[in-house]
Write a structure and sequence with these properties.
single chain; 420 residues; mainly alpha; Growth Hormone, Chain: A; 17 helices
Length: 420
């Protein structure tokens, strides 16, 4: 029988004790609602409310602003109520908001609900991340975060892929399904403990100076790039329903094709969760940022768009390029997200506060990307490329900052090396 406590970083300690498995289930249920009501919602808005990309960009940008506030409030909520009770409260409020939208699905009501829903959900993710990371050393933590990322990204891929079918066959499910999911999540927190047993501090060896420097560089690079990934994500989910390539499919097929990058991100999490090579190679994050920029342009712009012929008919080649570029886009986004969460948690011993910083950076990207795209569309309303080009400009700033930080780190490491 294994007597090693959960809070020791030992090969004999269980990586996934019952309380962690319970958190995964509740987190998965919460992810159903958040994916249907945030990224997938814009296909619903295009079909039901007849929104164009400008209205979608405006809403998603406002959601980014409130998301920052919600994420930064997570640590305070956890301190006031305890992590378990805070999540019960958060999931209960989210279920209530879904019920309001289900009963009165008018544009004004749904927009108001989504703004509050987004802010409340942002308070929950850092607490989930803290509970998953609590009482785990670097090796166990990598496994836990790997599975955590697989849960929410897998559910996100499935949710978006089936959004078109939900809209076609039972439109009320867009709000009813999340409501039920959040209610069941509340029940999961009432049937058992989710906190680590005992108060013994985590015991693991301090990292060597070189490894510590690598982790700090990786955290810096990933947290520069993390807002960029959500500049991409939320600009993409707002723009995709209006892209000519996506509109060339039927509704059910639109959301399936639009979820390919999510499937690629899931694959990245699957690969990263089972390996550790990236733990000591922070510069791969700089390459990921650059590739993400190129892939975003490949997804949102057709070859004809670069030549100025935006009215050219959609070809099979355009479709294949769109699908092909979604794969490196999702892979790079997965790497950057996984690095930001892992290195933030491993350097802070799984604190809710650092989880809040991680989520707040997501909100920054969610606000900046759509704002840049919306501003460009207002300046050049007749140019369908304007929004994508503006987002690419914001991504270029992130790549440049990452390159500067990498170069500075290399110079410092060289000066600190006694052999030089």
């Amino acid at each position: 029988m294994n007597s090693t406590p959960d809070h020791f970083d030992s090969d004999s300690s269980p990586a996934f004790p019952p309380r962690v498995r319970r958190v995964y289930v509740a987190h998965g249920l919460a992810s159903v609602g958040s994916n249907l009501l945030i990224p997938a919602f814009f296909f619903y808005a295009a079909q039901v409310f007849h929104w164009d990309s400008r209205q979608s960009l405006m809403l998603v940008g406002c959601e980014g602003v409130v998301y920052i506030g919600g994420a930064l409030a997570a640590n305070k909520l956890a301190s006031l109520f305890g992590r378990r009770c805070a999540l019960i409260l958060i999931q209960s409020v989210m279920a209530l908001l879904c019920a309001v939208a289900w009963l009165r699905a008018t544009p004004a009501v749904v927009v108001a609900v989504l703004l509050v829903y987004t802010m409340v959900s942002a308070s929950g993710w850092p607490i989930f991340e803290s509970l998953i990371s609590a009482a785990a050393g670097p090796k166990v933590l990598s496994k836990r975060i790997g599975l955590y990322n697989l849960v929410w990204s897998g559910i996100g891929t499935i949710s978006l892929a089936f959004t078109g079918t939900i809209i076609n066959r039972f439109m009320w499910g867009m709000f009813f399904i999340p409501m039920v999911a959040h209610v069941v999540a509340v029940l999961m927190f009432t049937v058992g403990n989710v906190e680590p047993e005992g108060a013994t501090p985590l015991v693991h060896a301090a990292p060597e100076p070189k490894l510590l420097r690598q982790r700090r560089l990786a955290l810096a690079l990933s947290r520069i790039a993390l807002p960029a990934t959500y500049i991409v994500l939320y600009s993409l989910v707002a723009l995709m329903p209006s892209l000519r390539v996506i509109r060339s499919y039927g509704l059910a097929s639109q959301t399936v094709v639009a979820s390919i990058w999510m499937g690629a991100r899931f694959s990245a999490f699957l690969a990263l969760g089972g390996t550790s090579w990236w733990h000591s190679r922070p510069r791969v994050l700089l390459l990921a940022s650059a590739l993400m920029l190129v892939a975003f342009l490949g997804v949102t712009l057709r070859p004809a768009d670069f030549s100025g012929d935006m009215s050219a008919p959609v070809t099979t080649f355009d479709r294949l390029l769109n699908i092909g570029w979604q794969i490196p886009l999702g892979l790079t986004m997965g790497l950057i997200y996984a690095a930001s969460l892992y290195f933030g948690m491993v350097l802070s011993d799984g604190s809710t506060e650092h989880g809040g910083y991680h989520e707040a950076l997501i909100g920054v990207g969610q606000a900046v990307g759509p704002a840049a795209a919306l501003a460009a569309q207002r300046i050049r309303p007749d140019d369908s490329r304007a929004g994508a080009i503006a987002v690419a400009g914001a991504l270029s700033v992130s790549v440049l900052l990452s390159a500067m930080v990498t170069a500075r780190h290399a110079a410092q490491s060289k000066s600190d090396d006694p052999k030089v």
